[in-house]
């Protein structure tokens, strides 16, 4: 269990449980919200094609997931943990775009 806690950089098993719960809820919710947004704009695989639909869906899921991660993490009292994670993610994305 110690290796898993070190990997997630948490101190207690309870915090590990909360972090994993937040990840699970955020992942599921981001898929739900992406589907809802696509339905609102009448975007589906039949109207724009399967490949275009999946590209749009994946691009839409990424920012929704990032926003929900902060919101759900805050609701579970782990704002600082997930905020640090978001800052790392933004730094990595920034490096990708700076290389080009």
Please state the structural category.
mainly alpha
In N-to-C order, the SSE pattern is HHHHH
Overall 3D form: globular
**Number of distinct helices:** 5
The number of domains:
1
Total number of beta strands: 0
| Most strands sheet | none
| Averaged pLDDT | 93
Unreliable stretches covering 5 or more consecutive residues? none
Give structural notes:
With 100 residues, this protein is an all-alpha fold. It has one domain (2-98). It has five helices and no strands. Helix 2 (13-40) crosses helix 4 (50-75) and helix 4 (50-75) packs antiparallel against helix 5. The protein is globular. The relative contact order is 0.11. The mean pLDDT is 93.
Outline of the structure:
This protein has 100 residues and is mainly alpha-helical. The protein has 5 helices and no strands.
List the SSEs and their pairings.
Blueprint: H1 2-8, H2 13-40, H3 45-48, H4 50-75, H5 79-98
Helix pairs in contact: 2-4, 4-5
Keywords:
100 residues, mainly alpha, 85% helix, 0% strand, globular
């Amino acid at each position: 269990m110690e290796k898993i806690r070190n990997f997630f950089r948490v101190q207690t098993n309870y915090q590990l449980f909360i972090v994993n719960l937040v990840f699970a809820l955020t992942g599921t919710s981001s898929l739900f919200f992406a589907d809802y947004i696509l339905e609102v704009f009448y975007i589906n695989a039949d109207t724009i094609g399967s490949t275009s639909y999946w590209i749009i869906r994946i691009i839409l899921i990424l920012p929704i997931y990032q926003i929900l991660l902060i919101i759900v993490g805050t609701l579970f009292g782990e704002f600082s943990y997930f905020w640090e994670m978001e800052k790392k993610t933004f730094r990595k994305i920034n490096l990708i775009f700076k290389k080009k």
